[in-house]
Batch of 4 targets.
Target 1
Amino acid sequence: NGVSGNPSRSVASTPFAGGVAQGGLCRDLHGSICSGQNSRNEDQIIGDAVRGLVQSFTRAQRISIGQFSGLVSNIVRNPLDRNLNTMYQRFFAHFAQQTPNINQLFQNVKSQVARGVQNMPLSDSAKQQMTAKLSSVNLKTTPNFNDPDDIQGFAEACGPDGMAPGAFAQFSERQVVVCPGLIMRALALGGTAELEHHLMHAIGHECTHHIGADIIRDQKGQPLGESPFRPEFQKALGCYAQNFRGIDPVNMGGEIAADIGAAKAMAERLRGFSPEEAFKFIKSSVGPLCGSQNDGVHPSDRFRINVILGQDPEISQLLGCSQQGQVCTLNGTEEVRR
């Protein structure tokens, strides 16, 4: 993962907070979550599930796998072709029939984000505005089949067949898009019983983008403005930039704030869990971060898991980890002794 965002480097004389002699999980949450991952085995399990979905669709439509591949590549170039568009809609309808409806799960996670906001050290005005904004955010798992730009944007983020395991926020539409591939990943690895485990962090992260610290840009990457809530995160962003190498508070601000919101939502969800249960949930939820690099917009997986999540006082307490030293919070740098 390189040195970008490495949480071992602090410019403060007092080391940043960490677990106190409590084993590997508390010392290195990232290592506990990511070192045991068998990505090749996971890819095989997920790939088999996706192939099964596609095969059941092509059999029902009496077309070959090759014809399906041509369909999903051509729809991006010809999004309003009637025959292609109809078949594309049928594929996503087939997906919906074969998988659980996650709208209630989405609403539950959004509620956890809202509860997390209420426990943040923010002004009452900011809390009210953030909660109101969250209430208007909706879930989307398919493109708008009547909008060529939306089809193309969806295909770019989720893959032409929608099976890339991703999620993103659409600010202008006040939507969170969860790619079908991310739902398939969750089902393949955990089944319906653990669907929430695997989707919680991603949904909480994308919901928080709507109330976070993003700089809004156009399709060419030019800034159009910034989130009105960005000032609420400035002290935390400044603290991270000062104390951890490779952290850009401007370009990474939106992603860091979104991770903060996801951590607060997860802390709300896991109240009453045992440390073992909480760790299992967190491992499933943030597992997709493992192996990701600092790309100038997203911090490294190690920073996101060990620092933003692992040094959150509530998450640390849920995992049964003591802390001593300094942590970055929305108030800036704070001393922790617990």
Target 2
Amino acid sequence: YGWAFTGFLITSIVGMVVSGLRTDRRGPRLPLLLGLSLFVAGLVLAAAAGAMWVLIAARVVQGLAVGLLITAIYVVMGEVYPDQVRPRMFAALSTSWIVPGLVGPILAGWVTQQLSWRWVFGGLAPIAAASGLMLVPAVRRLRSGAHTQELGPGLSRVGFAVLTALGIAAVAEVGQRQSPATVAIAVLGLAAMLYGLHRLLPAGTARFAPGVPAAIAYRGVLAATWVGMEVLVPLTLTVQRHYSPTMAGLPLLLTALTWAGASQIQGRSPHVGKSSFVRVGLALFGVGGLGMALVALRTVPGWFAYLVWPVAGAGAGFALTAVSVAVLEYTTDVDRGSDSSSLQLADSSMSAVSAAFSGALVALSANGTMSYAHGLGTAFAVMALIALLAIIRAGRLRPGPGRPVSAEAAARSHVSS
């Protein structure tokens, strides 16, 4: 069962890197069209699956498709929309993730009960296909040829992407089962993942170097701290407060609303610096995480989660949107594809590591090694502390020295001088 998710994750990472390479060389046309086609094919294959391995194969295809698409979408936003419009576009992009996330699980459950789980996949195929057809006229106007790169470095990046993906899968496994074997595999996987990321991410990412590296580093920090806490919110209310599944999931609904609202505020505040939004976002992460730690420890009532976790959602809306916009502003036309894929790589890899960390603490609590209060409280407190410490380097979220922000910004600078 776990490989239905792990297989998706591995191929999506490879798809991100392949899409970044292709878009830098020839533009985003092919990754968009191929990604949409593979996504529809994966839905149809999943709907027709007669065995688990077929469903896993379908998820592998879907993962590759999503990896191709998400990087290409970022490149399109960088190429088509001017600097002053991008914050609003990323706010719209955040809403397009959040709103389906509110109704999707409920609708999927209803379809499964009333019809069949196959319709959850198959019913989406015509919608995805129709969306692809609607995009074709616009895709034809996108850049179709540009920079030429040697084949060797590209193949090398794909190899490091595979290494990174396998390392992430090994790390994720320890979050499901703890044994000497899985711990040893996770340690090797972590080393493989870090080495792969070292070769794939821009130089200076680990030290938050100004420019694109800092933006990508902050995307990793934000994704890690968010995922490491969010996966535990319903569980905390269910285990520690004995809330029903519906009531335990309510904070996620409220958080989606504050996330969307904060994204809209960020998108309509061009006069506020991106580092300021990141500082505020990380601070709100800290408030949300420490508040949920108190809920887990039963220091405050359970309903406190309805107040404090949406605060973290607002932080995500401010900070995640800001760093996404920053990457497209700080990159160049030549590197837009690879930098966009690096942004997604940082997100996926750090999310997997933090989810494995939180999952391991839950497993230790479940088998009696520690109490749920201490396991859940520790996870929330650690993630909150990481977020608060990351505020220190928020000032590095600025254009790097000697690197033009974008072709458009460079042109404006030339006219001004």
Target 3
Amino acid sequence: LGRAARKGAGVKVRQPLAELWVRAANPAALDGIRRFEAELRDELNVKAVRYLDASADFVEYRFKPNLKLLGRKYGKLVPALTAALKELAGDAARATAHAVEAGQAVTLAVNGENLELLPEELLVESSGPAGYAVAEDNGTLVALNSAVTPELRLEGAARDLVRSVQDARKSAGLAISDRIKLFVAAEESDFLREMLAAWGDYVRSETLATDLAVGAAPEGAHRENVELGDGAATVGIVKTS
């Protein structure tokens, strides 16, 4: 569900995000999620996992009648049925949405009558708060804070750079233990320098770079064009040992 939320928000997994909110389907599921919280943070690349109360209305559901099916079935009751669906909120809206998802019929009071509505007769829309990507299935809900702060953007770029250098090392035929001199030139040079000021030690450690310089690589270096943040960059590596 977390990966689905990331995909929906258009945020790649290597970009760190601040938090993931979780509402578990039941207490046993909540205990299991808490047990593996560290793995969840690592796999989804979030700084924190937080938990929603089972009654929390984090998602807003909206319902409309499927007029192709209900128009002929209920005729003059359709306007009142539409109004009754619009009034569904809170626990009632959530229960209705979960019933439709599970393929179950829904009973709705309309003008003093209890109407049984089949799942295919209802159209369900859902939305989360601004800035959150939400995914839900079988009673479990996740809400991913999709905001990328300047600090998170720097960290994401550092992770992208490390991956690019690791790929360049493989292309150059280097052994895992080989040390290198690393050169990086980017369109966004100010951003590159800011990122390396914050994450240079991490980049050097992960790539086994004894030296890390901003600028074009010397003749004879292995070079590759890569993406860095929202721009393009060129990495150059020279084996030192």
Target 4
Amino acid sequence: MVRFLRLVLIFFLAACTHADGGWKAKDISGLMPDLELSMTEAPARPVTAADYRGKIALVFFGYTSCPDVCPTTLVRLAQALRAMPDHGAGARVLFVTVDPSRDTPERLARYVSAFGDGVVGLRGTPEAIDRLTRRYRVSYSLGQPDAKGDYEVSHSSGVFVFDAQGRARLLVRPDDRPADIAADLERLERG
């Protein structure tokens, strides 16, 4: 019986040790499609995924009127970039608005500039946004406008990390710390 319990304990300990490959964020290698997009980088530059090849891309869906999740997430990501030895030169945060009717190119460009050079704003038509969110299984919804035309927007809070070849590698969650994100990004840079 003792031998059986030891075997069970060894099995459970083995299952808990670095099955994730030692990543701090959630390893999603092979679970999501490669980076593919066709958007406009605010204020007015058309871009595709090819424009970000050679750099790590952190893709986050949100909107500029977001009161909490978006600014908090972008601050954490900007802190992670600044914590890297090259200050994130080999990475870009791609903030994709899910509210293009309110997030004009100028507003989006002004918003992302507050978080540093490594953060860019992307926007597209509602159809392009829907294609992109479906591709990465991201949910969002726009509420009904009130009398003033304001409405709520709900959206996912995860950040997809693509390596320099555009392969989906990690999912950064809301509780991942900037230092841990930076460590994962540095590891991706090293290959």
